[in-house]
Every structure is written in C-alpha cells, then in structure tokens.
Design a protein that fits this description.
The chain is of the alpha+beta class and 205 residues long. The protein has helices spanning 2-18, 30-35, 43-50, 60-68, 96-112, 127-136, 168-183; strands at 73-74, 78-79, 82-84, 93-94, 118-122, 152-160, 163-164, 187-192, 197-202. Helix content is 40%, strand content 18%. Strands 2, 3, 5, 6, 7, 8 and 9 form a 7-stranded mixed sheet that branches.
C-alpha cells in the first residue's frame, strides 16, 4: 500500500511539473486604458511622446526590446546638476533626445544655481508599472501616460541636493530653466501639485 501511494504521488508530481505554466494576466485592462481621453493640457505630452517611434510600453519584455535595438538609453544615477532617486515604479531609461535634454537641463540648472542639484523622481513606466503605482497612488493616470513611451521624466520641486525640504529659491531657479526650454520649443512641462514634481515631456524638435 505504501509503495502504491508513493507511486501515485510520484506520478502526480511528474504530471504537474509537465503542465505548462499559466500565463499571468496583466493587471490592467488595455481596452479601458485606451478609452481614457487625455486632458487638453496633457494631450501635447502624449502626441510628442508618440512621435519618437516607441510603441506603448506594456511590460519588461517590451522595454528590453527597445533597449536591445538601441532606442532606449540608460540614464546614469547622477550627472551635472541632477540626481536620480531610487525608482520603485519606473525605469531609468529614456529615448536619446529625452536623455540628452535631461542632461542639458541639469547642466543649465547647475550653472544657474551655482552647483546645486535637483532630483529626478520618475522616468519610463510600463503599463504594468503604472498599474502597480496606482495601487499606492490613486492620482496615477488611469489612461495612457507619456511615461509609457520612454520620453517623459519627473523632477521634484521639494528635493534639492538630496535633501527633502521645501526650498523656494531652488524651485524658482528650476522653473526658470524649464521655462527657457519650453519657450525654445524643446519641452512641455506641467507642475503637479499632488506629486510635488514637474512632469516634463521632450518634444521631437
């Protein structure tokens, strides 16, 4: 009897291990996501991001494809005028023009502020990342975000020099730099009150 039970149990193990693993369903409903219309203020960000030839980034596999073909580029943890905080819900990759523009904004801010740094709080997000973020932040977009195309990044206006502290002087200096690039036709930006950051999207100039 004992041998029989062992034989049956062993067969079950073999059977179970032979079954193909079930594919996990995405945590978002793409049909619903696509139905959400962007606001008039946000629509230029979406349109600009779509112009770089990156399709909607759904998951890590999609991100990896664009990294492999050289369309998404790694952003260093720090550069002149900026630092990147620990990213829990986004990836430190951007399209080439966005990466270059971030570096230029950082360098100009460093020059204007005499060596200070700002903090990048978010970059490229997949739809999966967006879904995870929404679980902890109800303000995260229900629809498509310009972050989903590898062309947007957020800069905190309450964290300068790696210090979380309201600094009106640094905030004014940062917005002055952003206005310069916006007026030059290089970026769009929105000041997000709830997230204490500037949402920046690079234009395909």
């Amino acid at each position: 009897m004992k041998k029989f039970l062992c034989l049956v149990f062993g067969c079950l193990l073999v059977f179970c291990s032979a079954q193909p693993s079930r594919k996990m369903a995405p945590c978002y409903d793409l049909t619903k996501v696509l139905k959400v219309e962007p606001t008039p203020l946000y629509k230029p960000h979406i349109d600009a991001s779509k112009s770089f030839g990156i399709k909607l980034l759904k998951d890590s596999k999609t991100i990896q494809k664009y990294i492999s073909n050289g369309k998404l580029h790694k952003v260093k943890k720090s550069g002149k005028g900026y630092r990147v905080q620990k990213l829990d819900y986004s990836r430190a990759y951007l399209v080439s023009k966005a990466k270059t523009t971030l570096e230029k904004i950082g360098a100009k801010f460093s020059k204007e502020s005499k060596g200070h740094t700002f903090t990048v709080s978010s970059m490229t997000r997949t739809l999966e990342d967006q879904c995870r973020l929404r679980r902890v932040n109800s303000n995260a977009s229900l629809g498509i975000s310009s972050h989903n195309y590898g062309n947007s990044f957020d800069i905190s206006y309450v964290r300068f020099n790696n210090l979380l502290k309201y600094n009106p002087k640094m905030e004014i200096a940062l917005e002055k730099v952003l206005k310069y690039y916006a007026n030059a036709g290089r970026i769009y930006y929105i000041k997000e009150r709830q997230q204490s950051c500037y949402h920046i999207t690079v234009r395909n100039y």
